[in-house]
Design goal:
By secondary structure, this protein is an alpha+beta fold. It is 13% helix and 29% strand. It has eleven helices and 39 strands. The strands form eleven sheets. The chain has a five-stranded mixed sheet, with no helix packed on it. Strands 2-39-38-37 form a four-stranded antiparallel sheet, with no helix packed on it. A hairpin with a 5-residue loop joins strand 13 (196-201) and strand 14. Helix 7 (598-611) packs across helix 11. The protein is globular. The chain starts with 20 loop residues before the first helix and ends with a helix. The chain binds pyrroloquinoline quinone and calcium ion. Calcium ion (CA) binds at residues 121, 189-190, 266-267, 312, 314.
Length: 688
């Protein structure tokens, strides 16, 4: 049975002095801890522990599990420090557990208003906490940065990081702490925001500095020299109204020797440069890695992966620092495998590109020119005049699921995917208010006809790639039928761990890639695993659970039948705890009769895809997280209009009556009835 909280367990290991700069910089000297989200400032996600290794990994078993509160986006990497595990679930709830048996020590719920989920593109995710001295820091989805007491979970301070609440800003990323400052960005570039990152005093929460990633109102002076430079790469005055984008919603890394903080910036807002910047200009600092001084937020250098970004190609994916031997010289590099499909090795002292090679199928660019550091774009990627199927698409060749690097093998383990997208231009689109997407690309609609759908889904595949960053090629790979597989962990036991979209947790040999062990997780798994040691026992742990961009927006492309059942799953050699039984599928309720005229259903379809599809799935195909609206019960059909008007606000269903008229709601309802009929017919014919 699942481990239940017990009051009898003795206190865990004694703290060895609070977490400070010295401990974070020397994180590798305490192999049993996992002090920050990427384990060290280099964000390598490499555990030096080797008690679990290639020869005994087959004996791994579940040590304990802990049920998380919300069965939505489960994306956090747990931290283990001084005998406490700290983890977050969706809606930014922080839980402290005893890492030996999973019993709950405390829990803090920031009580994020559930209907604010409409402010984000991709589910109410939270990727974890940071720790400094006696405090734990979480960036809440509604934009508050909150400090908690490490021992009790009591709130010590909170500060509002959002500059403009009329815009859709959210926080999904994990904070980092550098020299007593808590650093956090935010998201929202699908919904019209201007990206920035801020640093806050760890003791008091006072703002120390803020760095905008894209220029602001062109009629006003630029904030600093970097914005002055950036402004020259933008055209017209639409970008400011549209937000501009460049959100810093996930990755960062820090080099204490160079004293440089590296941040990854996101896509344009809107995606479409024609709408945003008259179709011209590099649009700095979109889709870039920017090096800043952590004390002041001062700009040092940038490398832009996708100049003039037009595809939702973020450079927010994992940034890993390492020292690599390249052509006989040891180079201080940073590495990134962003959405755009190229693997970048950049000199982290100067920001100069060392190499960039495709790691998946890419058709928007033929290559990256090494001398200029710029991609050579291909006409196949330009969708702003006519629809184009572009490889990769907005889900990315690699998304937020963290990659890892093993200094032992010299390989980078990338949760990669082939995920093309049919971009359809909507060049007239304008900013239309908080809580509304405006990408300059028509809303996603997948074919409702099963044959066509299978054709598109057939292009999607997941891969675990062991990438050699020096040779710039794949050393080994593992193929998955589905995309959206989990982040990776490399260990000194010559192992790589990864959860899968189809509900497994797997270990591979880090050097050769052979599968050594797997176990069911009874849920899709996306988050990055981690490892720690306590009382001489090595554990491997993962926040297992499903959600985020893919299952919400494009359930049709998710692994069939994947469930969302959020739990911390922790393994050790000889573990004998049993995994709670999987959630059972509910029987399909009968659809009401379809009485509406085809024109009403067609209108409902367009309205659905515009206003509902990004959460409940394009073409009403659910991805196993939020309700699949083809499966509404007779009772829900009865109160449908009430639900759209806010009856389920506390469950996370906002009112949409600011954008829909009652007859629109009725048209959407009729479309859903038509889709329920389709589903029934497919089920009767025996197809999924
Ligand atoms: O542009 C942005 O501000 C922004 C924010 C986020 C986010 O905060 O989670 C995502 C994305 N973009 C995005 O493009 C994306 O693919 C994505 C996936 C996820 C997720 O948690 O599954 N978040 C985000
Ligand atoms: Ca985005």
């Amino acid at each position: 049975a699942e481990v239940k909280p017990t009051a009898t367990a003795a206190p865990a290991a004694v703290p060895s002095g609070p977490v400070d700069a010295a401990r974070l910089i020397a994180a590798d000297r305490e192999p049993g801890s996992w002090l920050s989200t990427g384990r060290n400032y280099s964000e390598q996600r490499y555990s030096p522990l080797a008690a679990v290794n290639k020869s005994n990994v087959a004996q791994l078993g579940l040590a304990w599990s802990y049920k998380l509160d919300v069965d939505r986006a489960t994306e956090a990497t747990p931290i283990v420090v001084d005998g406490v595990m700290l983890v977050t679930s969706a809606f930014s709830i922080v839980t402290a557990l005893d890492p030996r048996d999973g019993h709950e020590l405390w829990k803090f719920d920031p009580k994020v208003r559930r209907d604010l989920d409409r402010d984000g593109c991709c589910d109410a995710a939270n990727r974890g906490v940071a720790v400094w001295q006696n405090k734990v820091y979480v960036g809440a989805y509604d934009g508050r940065l909150i400090a908690l007491d490490l021992k009790t979970g009591a709130k010590l301070w909170e500060t509002d990081t959002i500059v403009d609440h009329k815009r859709s800003y959210t926080i999904s990323g994990a904070p980092r702490v550098v020299k007593g400052k808590v650093i956090i960005g935010n998201g929202g570039a699908e919904l019209g925001v201007r990206g920035y990152i801020g640093a806050y005093d760890a003791e008091t929460g006072a703002l120390a500095w803020r760095f905008y990633t894209v220029p602001g109102d062109p009629s006003r002076p630029a904030e600093n020299a970097a914005m002055e430079m950036a402004r020259k790469t933008w055209f017209g005055d639409q970008y400011y109204k549209l937000g501009g984008g460049g959100t810093v919603w996930d990755s960062m890394a820090y080099d204490p020797e160079l004293d440089l903080l590296y941040i990854g910036t996101g896509n344009g807002s809107s995606w479409n440069r024609k709408v945003r910047s008259e179709g011209k200009g590099d649009n700095l600092f979109l889709s870039s890695i920017v090096a800043l001084r952590p004390d002041s937020g001062e700009y040092v250098w940038h490398y832009q992966t996708t100049p003039g970004e037009t595809w939702d190609f973020t450079a927010t994916q994992s940034i890993i620092l390492a020292d690599l031997k390249i052509e006989g010289q040891t180079r201080k590099v940073l590495m990134q495998a962003p959405k755009n499909g190229f693997f970048y090795v950049v000199d982290r002292v100067t920001g100069k590109l060392i190499s960039a090679e495709k790691f998946v199928t890419v058709n928007w660019a033929s290559k990256v020119d090494l001398a200029s550091g710029r991609p050579v774009e291909s006409p196949d990627g330009d969708w702003t005049s006519q629809p184009k199927l572009v490889f990769p698409g907005p889900l990315g060749a690699h998304n937020w699921q963290p990659m890892s690097y093993s200094p032992q093998t010299g390989l980078v383990y990338i949760p990669a995917q082939q995920a093309p997208y049919l971009y359809v231009p909507d060049n007239a689109q304008r900013y239309s208010g908080r809580g509304r997407w405006h990408t300059g690309s028509a809303p996603l609609a997948v074919p409702e006809n099963n044959k066509e759908l299978q054709g598109i889904a057939g292009l999607y595949k997941g891969q675990l790639l062991a990438w050699d960053p020096v040779a710039q090629k794949v050393a080994w790979s593992q193929d998955y039928a589905a995309i959206w597989n989990g982040g990776t962990l490399a260990t000194a036991g010559n192992l790589v761990f990864q959860g899968t979209a189809d509900g497994r947790f797997v270990a591979y040999a880090a050097d050769k890639g052979d599968k050594l062990w797997e176990t069911p997780a009874n849920t899709g798994v996306m988050a990055g695993p981690m490892s720690y040691e306590i009382d001489g026992v090595q554990y491997v742990s993962v926040a297992a659970g499903w959600g985020g961009a893919l299952p919400l927006a494009a359930g049709a492309l998710a692994a069939p039948g994947t469930r969302a059942d959020a739990r911390i799953l922790t393994y050790k050699l000889g573990g004998t705890a049993s995994l709670p039984a999987p959630k059972t599928a509910v029987a399909l309720p009968p659809p009401p009769p379809l009485t509406a005229k085809p024109a009403v259903v067609a209108k409902g379809r367009d309205l659905y895809n515009e206003h509902c599809g990004v959460c409940h799935g394009a073409s009403a195909i659910g991805g196993g997280v939020l309700p699949d609206l083809r499966k509404l019960t007779p009772e829900k059909h009865q109160i449908f209009a009430g639900i759209v008007a806010g009856a389920y606000i506390d469950k996370g269903m906002p009112s949409l009556m600011d954008v829909l008229k009652p007859e629109d709601v009725e048209a959407i309802h009729q479309y859903l009835i038509a889709r329920a009929q389709d589903l029934h017919r497919e089920a009767a014919a025996g197809s999924p």
